[in-house]
Amino acid sequence: MRRLRTDILILGSGGAGLFAALHAQAANPSLSITIAVKGLLGKCGCTRMVQGGYNVALAAGDSVERHFMDTIEGGKWLPDQDLAWTLVTGAIERVHELENEIGCFFDRNPDGTIHQKAFAGQTFDRTVHKGDLTGIEIINRLAEQVWARGIARLEEHRALEFILTADGSAIAGVLLVDMHDGEYVLVEAQAVLLATGGGPTMYRFHTPSGDKSCDGMAMALAAGLPLRDMEMVQFHPTGLLAGAHTRMTGTVLEEGLRGAGGYLLDGNGERFMQKYDPRGERATRDIVSRAIYAEMRAGRTTPNGGVWLSMAHLGADNVRRQFKGMVERCADCGFDLAGGRVEVVPTAHYMMGGVEFAAGCTTALTGLFVAGEDSGGVHGANRLGGNGVANSTVFGGIAGDAMAAWVAREGSFRVSDARAVEAAIARADRPFHSGEASDLEAIRERLHTTMWDDAGIVRDAASLAHAARFLDALAQQLHGYALPTAARTRAFNLTWHDWLNLTNLVAVSRAIVRAAVARENSRGAHFRADFPEPGELSASAFIRVRDRGGALGVESVPVRFTRVRPGASLLAS
Amino acid sequence: MKFKIYRYDPEKDAAPRMQDYEVTLDVHDRMLLDAIIRVKAQDDTLSFRRSCREGVCGSDAMNINGKNGLACVTNLKELQEPVVLRPLPGLPVIRDLIVDMSQFFKQYHSIKPYLVNDTPPPEKERLQSPADREELDGLYECILCACCSTACPSFWWNPDKFVGPAGLLQAYRFIADSRDHAASERLDNLEDPYRLFRCHTIMNCVDVCPKGLNPTRAIGKIREMMVKRAV
Question: Which of A62, A191, A308, B121 can bridge A124 by disulfide, Cβ–Cβ 3.0-4.6 Å?
Fold first, then answer.
């Protein structure tokens, strides 16, 4: 095992991790800062994949109050209101920082100011973008700044477990594995940021990249940290449906397509959204996904079992110009988005839930900070399109500032518990030594099916109980897994990492199911067929899940309406 | 479908070898990545990089039947059998199809790929006309997959001295950015017998770019600017 020391260790290199590194360094250039990521910096994860854009109240006529109310109402009154307020106010500062300091370049209005486009579920056109490939611009420019400033990088280093002090009072470091040679690496740090991103790839149809496996949330669960809103998994309504096995299926066709006036058609070519919501195709993601799912269950589907997305009535040339990236992706799969129609299916996209945190991105574990999709509480029951990358960059920057200040004020290197390190290595190393070889792809398929069928867009007590039993069995099978003898070398052993990925996915899936059982009402992304009503808004509560010695415990925690109460608004009528 | 795949495990193999595979495809297997995942299910020892699976991250760049490309957006119907897969040429191999990208990124970083503007940031954004913004189309879309640079004979010969097409495309992206104030220093940085001028317009870069970008044109524009400022 190798050992390293760094003042600040950042897990993850998306919008949250990179912004945290830059802010921490700006706050105190003498700090040693290290970013560890399981892929190549800037080339993995989900910020890069952002298509649509970045919500921010910039234009005349819009306001942070309006953005805030859209976020709270979109989140069905479950968001932590102070965090949501930080999001909408911080987004203004951050988008200017992205433009003026980081060098991002978003699309312009004729007068040279930043252009903002329409997204669904919002009362104002406030989504900043770069064509329909906004994430590449954000992540490339951020990565360049990080490279240029001598911030240390541990690329293709996968985090395994938090290592605490022997008395369990604080985090002392993180155990990682260097994927290049399979060697374990203990990185001790004064402050650690958890920013690995979520990524609900446990569902049959999903948008995040294949290397996402909820590692951060799984580590937080294993460390006994409280997570909230885990039942809230967002399904994006328009995932490309190109057939069962191809990895192209599930990739997202951006929200701007509906925002711009795209139609959804059932298998017979009829529009159906008006039956479900007066806003039609421009309703929020949860509503549109559920409507599509209902059409699918009623059998009114396309050849591959989804519905059609049709843009042709907006003019093929116009669509080609406005959505170049999307048109090209559909063409790769044999669909003509501009002039014809494309098969789509709801696809698991984002986890609103995550580690509970306070202002300053602190967690219940001293020395551990959290930002981005690993955190919970900003979005409540549903995230608005365009609030995701705003979340990761706003809170990433805040975490960087907060960690630098915390290290100066009360940071120290703490002694890591040697026995905990040994035990963590033994857990990760198990499939090299004992157990039974089994087909990991088959386990993945079973996980996909269970989560989609029983804990997906529509759930009930019976389906969730079924999912829980199934997940227990999968966890057992993974626990007893051994690598085939031929696949026991360490350098870039993908099969070993697949096993680690699946183990994390199953752990987080169990938390999703546990929280979904506990919420006996229907809010936002969580819909219980046996409890279809939202419940009293003024009595809103969020579900907290935590691992207590191997069993998941839940409690219901009342939402504090610190800025606005249900039925009221911050907007003057 | 039949495959021949480059294999090398530093812990087991003295030298690289090619291994034959045959997998049964489903009608819905569209992209090469779908087929590679089937091969992986058959052989747990195979290693390759992949992330976004939609042509945005550039992780699964490899040499496919002699031509560099991204496995996730390479249509299986266009491939002749046996499909020969090798790691990107000219870079050290870590294992199987995974290469060490350090040299590629070193060259990319050498062009200072970040906005340089010493005027104090305005309260809002720096204004830019739609025409100036349009100048960046075909430049900003680069995903740094390295298909182009590792297809370039000049880069194979001088990876330590020639910036390569990916880096030069990005150099022009900043030179062309109306908000950047370092065009002159950027040109100085490239005025060298190797850094820019090793490009012999072979145009392999244009041929392989999975995003349809044209580094050769960007290189031509940088050359033009050098000539203009010389006279």
Answer: A62
Residue A254 DSSP one-character state: P
CA-based max dimension of chain B: 63
> Pick from B172, B160, B155, B165: which is nearest to B207 by CA?
B165
Is B140–A105 a contact, with Cβ atoms under 8 angstroms apart? yes
CA dihedral sign of residues A458, A460, A463, A467: positive
pLDDT of A4 > 70? The answer is yes
Could you tell me which chain B residue has the CA closest to the CA of A333?
B30
Q: Kindly state whether B98 is in contact with chain A, defined as any CB-CB distance less than 8 angstroms.
A: yes
Query: Cβ atoms within 10 A of the Cβ of A246, count?
Result: 25
Q: A33-37 and A152-155 as β-strands: parallel, antiparallel, unpaired?
A: parallel
DSSP chain B: -EEEEEE--TTT-SS-EEEEEE-PPPTT--BHHHHHHHHHHH-TT------SSSSSS-TTEEEETTEEEEGGGSBGGGPPSSEEEEPPTTS-EEETTEE--HHHHHHHHHT--S----SPPPSSPPP--HHHHHTTTTTTT-----TTGGG-HHHHH-TTT--HHHHHHHHHHHHT-TT---HHHHHHHH-STTTTTT-----HHHHH-TT---HHHHHHHHHHHHHHHH-
DSSP annotation of A566 reads: T
Kindly report the CA angle at A517 between A513 and A518, in degrees rounded to 5?
120
Q: Where are the beta strands (DSSP E) in A402-458?
A: none
The ipTM of this complex is 0.93
- Which among B26, B44, B53 is the nearest to A247, CB-wise? B53
Separation between Cα atoms, residue B35 and residue B32, nearest integer Å:
5
Instruction: Considering only the beta carbons, identify the residue of A107, A112, A491 that sits closest to B10.
Output: A491
Q: Is beta strand A2-11 parallel, antiparallel or unpaired with respect to A33-37?
A: parallel
Nearest to A432 by CA among A479, A478, A487, A476: A487
| B180-191 residue pLDDT tens | 999 999 999 999
What is the residue type of A280? Answer: G
Question: Å from A249 to nearest chain B CA?
Answer: 10
Query: How far apart (Å, rounded) are the C-alpha atoms in residues A436 and A144?
Result: 45
B118 interfacial to chain A (CB closer than 8 Å): no
Q: Do B52 and A486 touch (CB under 8 A)?
A: no
DSSP state of A98: I
d(CA B169, CA B144): 10
Per-residue model confidence as pLDDT tens digits over B123-155: 888 888 888 888 888 888 899 999 999 999 999
Q: Taking the model in full, what pTM does it have? A: 0.95
Is residue B69 a contact partner of residue B208, using CB atoms and an 8 Å limit?
Answer: yes
- Determine how many CB atoms are found less than 10 A away from the CB of residue A65: 17
Distance of alpha carbon A175 from alpha carbon A418, whole angstroms: 11
Nearest CA distance, B231 vs chain A (angstrom):
31
Portion 31-90 of B in contact with A at CB < 8 A: 31, 33-34, 37, 40-41, 44-59, 72-73, 75
Pick among B44, B117, B173 to test the A interface (most A CBs inside 10 A): B44
- Residues of A within 8 A of B75 (CB-CB) are 332
Contacts of residue A431, Cβ cutoff 8 Å, sequence gap at least 6: A481, A482, A483, A496, A499
Chain CA centroid to CA A162, Å: 20
Interface probe with B: pick from A489, A490, A497, most Cβ of B within 10 Å = A489
Write down the mean pLDDT value for chain A: 95
Provide, rounded to the nearest whole percent, the portion of chain A with pLDDT above 70. Answer: 100
How does pLDDT run across A153-169, given as a tens digit for each residue? 999 999 999 999 999 99
